[in-house]
Amino acid sequence: MWTIEKLTALCVEYCGRAGVEFNSPVTINPRTTNRLGGCYYEWTPRKGYFPTQIEFSKTFLSVASDEEVEKVVAHECAHYVTFALTNVRHEHDKVFRHYCKVIGTDNDKYALVVNSYAEHSDKVFKYAFYCSKCGKFVGGRSRACKMTKHPEWYKANCCQAPLNMIQNW
To answer: CATH top-level class for 4-117?
Structure first.
């Protein structure tokens, strides 16, 4: 399992490659399930944007390989470096991609799926849905809704078969 100290040391290394001193807290969020990490910032009229913290999903850190974690850390550090050097929020534009190259990562886009995270994503949801024909994980919900109350109304896209629902807790 990745610790805050280990993540902070990696952030210091990546930011140092761009000549930026990393001096913000790193946090692990136990509730985050929709994103792998995030770089947070504040805006003031005098300083513009400046980074305040980097956060990572506890669920992601618990299931991802070391290589996947390092890629996400590098991506968030590229946001940190971009904010620190330009005082402008660049999201995933050319300036951000330039700083990705400076710190040595090719992870310059939104991470929609990380292999390890996708394989374990059914454990994140309170209600997990599977195709009744092939058993493939279809999706999940963290709260009760029409789909959780009446899964028989829905079909899986893969086989057009009814859904099986499993309540994880």
So the answer is: alpha beta
